[in-house]
Amino acid sequence: MATLYDQADKNTRLTWLYISGFLVFVIGVGYVFAGAMGNSSILYGAVLFSIAMSFGSYWWSDKIVLSMSSAKEVTHEENRELYHLVENLCITAGLPAPKIYIIEDSAPNAFATGRDPEHGVICVTTGLLDKLEKIELEGVIAHELSHIGNRDILLSTVVVVLVGFIALMADWFRYGIFSKRSSDNEGGGQLQMIFFILAIVLSILAPIAAMLIQVAISRKREFLADASAALLTRYPEGLAKALEKISADPEPLEAANRATAHLYISNPLKGSNISKLFSTHPPIEERVAALRGIEIR
Hints:
Layout: H1 4-37, H2 41-68, E1 72-73, H3 80-93, E2 99-103, E3 110-113, E4 121-125, H4 126-131, H5 134-149, H6 152-179, H7 183-186, H8 189-233, H9 236-248, H10 284-292
Parallel strand pairs: 2-4
Antiparallel strand pairs: 1-2, 3-4
Helix pairs in contact: 1-6, 1-8, 2-6, 3-5, 5-8, 5-9, 6-8, 8-9, 9-10
């Protein structure tokens, strides 16, 4: 039977393996597109644009997400029990206490954001506070603190930018086919024609492949956060029961949308027809089984 440490180490290794492969994939796609167009400035321009988007996402994504979710910061005096629960877990995890926000919504859910542990934010719904027992709520808070401690917000920002970079290059290449399909390619020789054919195929398949890589990385980080949370609380069953309650609750979270759904501990878009293949979260059944299949030493 796998221990918490075994599962955490496995998920961490797989995540960085995916990231390394993703970076190689991005560079390869950019190289093919630049070769097909015979113009490396396209690649350089896309890289600069992606860096700018990454910088903006890193610094301001938390404020944007909290504003979109209509979340309000809660003070210590307004909810002492929640504050003490978060502070105690932070002491155990060796993390600075994050800011705490609440969404007025009866659907139980939660998410974490912030560019680093020193600027961490945990956001919970009123439904989560009302419907979970304390030991279950502790599991959810520990999961979100684990995202902050594992710097998953930074990692997800990098991955989202890389996925956007692939889509952007594919769009620019397809646009370039129609705006510049001329004698440039005719004089490029056989090698450039090979690049051109490969680029056409990649312009269609690369965005799909990039999304699948994003999903794989995101799912591994969810499993890692679950295992880390169980390590913090020393009670995997608390989070397992919380996940079952949250996923079984029929109420959709009105504050959530497709842009923010991936942040939550469980898919907040109830009744969504999004294919499980492209879901950024593993099935709840798999997460619960993983939690109940590990032991604490």
